[in-house]
């Protein structure tokens, strides 16, 4: 039995990378029975069959697992969002950050298509998130802006590109991974929404320790998190939350809430607080619907 890393999953086959070779493998039916699935990024035990093929017998324990995009064992997510087509949505960005935080993975926020907006708008978005404590960078593949900084961030990590369809993930992957050519697509100007050019998650090796996955974009995202825990994923709340009157303050309507004061004083970005309230409500609704 040998071990390898799943780099691609297409039509019931899994391409497994092992020591420089790629084998096309099938997973044995036993996985379905047990409810286990094979994800791109999984480390698997497989039996070689001939020179090119194999059978996956076992999925090794995952260190991390994301739902959107579906991928295992990444330790870094590039959350890509474009300034335009599709238009920037801080709510979608914050929701994606929530998902990534719940999965225990570190994000880098990448604002794409910076060539299509004024410098001031681009700076403001980057500043907002750096102030909050995230690594954030504005890039333009068209003008080659921000790419070096991002390349440096990828080094030594297994990274996946996440974000809405049409944000420019595949375009970015192509710029970051020389010699690779992921399919990219025009965004329909009329609806300002992507139509999912990328269909599969695919992991490519940049060097021994550095991997990058392109993935399909999404328009919807469900985050499974307890409503009481949403606040812990808004990292900029934490220093203020210690000063709230109530220990279990949810920063909603409570008296003596330091987080709300910080929002009013402009120390926490208002857009982040609005996202928090909405994501809290959504988590609350999920809980209520579960009973
Ligand atoms: N002006 C400009 N356009 C860009 C830039 N990056 C990407 N685009 C355009 O954005 C469109 C969508 O790019 P893709 O890379 O296919 O987007 P994607 O995020 O991979 O989309 P899905 O695969 O559907 O999730 C294409 O028309 C790209 O040419 C950029 O830096 N500047
Ligand atoms: Mg794509
Ligand atoms: Zn509070």
UniProtKB/TrEMBL annotation:
Domain EngC GTPase: 72-219
Residue numbers binding GTP: 112-115, 163-171
Location of the protein in the cell: Cytoplasm
Bound cofactor: record note: Binds 1 zinc ion per subunit.
InterPro entries: G_CP_dom (IPR030378), NA-bd_OB-fold (IPR012340), P-loop_NTPase (IPR027417), Ribosome_biogen_GTPase_RsgA (IPR004881), RsgA_GTPase_dom (IPR010914), RsgA_N (IPR031944)
UniProt keyword terms in alphabetical order: Cytoplasm, GTP-binding, Hydrolase, Metal-binding, Nucleotide-binding, Ribosome biogenesis, RNA-binding, rRNA-binding, Zinc
Protein name per its UniProtKB record: Small ribosomal subunit biogenesis GTPase RsgA
Chain's role: One of several proteins that assist in the late maturation steps of the functional core of the 30S ribosomal subunit. Helps release RbfA from mature subunits. May play a role in the assembly of ribosomal proteins into the subunit. Circularly permuted GTPase that catalyzes slow GTP hydrolysis, GTPase activity is stimulated by the 30S ribosomal subunit.
Name of the gene this protein is made from: rsgA
EC numbers, comma separated: 3.6.1.-
Matching PANTHER family: SMALL RIBOSOMAL SUBUNIT BIOGENESIS GTPASE RSGA, SMALL RIBOSOMAL SUBUNIT BIOGENESIS GTPASE RSGA 1, MITOCHONDRIAL-RELATED
One Pfam family from the record: RsgA_GTPase
The keyword ATP-binding appears for this protein: no
Cofactor(s) demanded: Zn(2+)
Domain CP-type G, chain residue ranges per copy: 63-221
Principal EC category: hydrolase
Homology family: Belongs to the TRAFAC class YlqF/YawG GTPase family. RsgA subfamily.
Residues reported to bind Zn(2+): 244, 249, 251, 257
